[in-house]
């Protein structure tokens, strides 16, 4: 899934969006003036106006002559919170945020197979959306090893693709390797997710390995930053200082 450096005005909009989201600027507060934002971020007034236009289009602020830029609404809360804990926590998301299949067929050479460096001829690729209801939480693409690829109906009927594989072929995940990175959304991904180009997002890649350590399933999901949160809790062990 592609990503790239966002234009400066989109970066500024994202920083202001985050400050509205975390309560630095609350509903009814006035944002710094254009002049103050120019000085704060070392940017031109044209860049400031483009950034504020994005926030206005999203309904987060309103701009009135002599009144300044006023916060009118917070960003939408995250649609899904994923605990980071044990093995079952990793499976919580894929069982809760249902997968809608968009494509399921031969793996293209320039898709996820190229990213994780496997022979696409030995794999099938699935692309779909995850969500709770009508709104999309994330976009997913998966690679399923050809010798344990379920039928489309089995995938739809199962709670997860991994469950469908285990039910049909008896191949189960003994280990899941997960990598999380931050990206900004290009125009295509932003359009598919219904959000602004250049918005912050999380890219989560998971590799599912069987008892013999062989890869049989891989997934890569992009979540807009305002729709997905990872959470962690740590308990202090007795005797630790």
Written description of the protein model:
By secondary structure, the protein is of the alpha+beta class. The chain is 30% helix and 31% strand. It has eight helices and ten strands. It has helices at 8-21, 34-41, 45-57, 87-96, 112-116, 152-157, 161-169, 187-193, and strands spanning 61-64, 68-71, 80-83, 98-106, 123-131, 136-145, 175-184, 200-209, 215-224, 228-231. The protein has a six-stranded antiparallel sheet with strand order 4-5-6-9-8-7, sandwiched between helices. Strands 1-2 form a two-stranded antiparallel sheet. A hairpin with a 3-residue loop joins strand 1 and strand 2. It is elongated, with a radius of gyration of 21 Å. The relative contact order is 0.16.
Concise account of the structure shown:
This protein is an alpha+beta fold and 241 residues long.
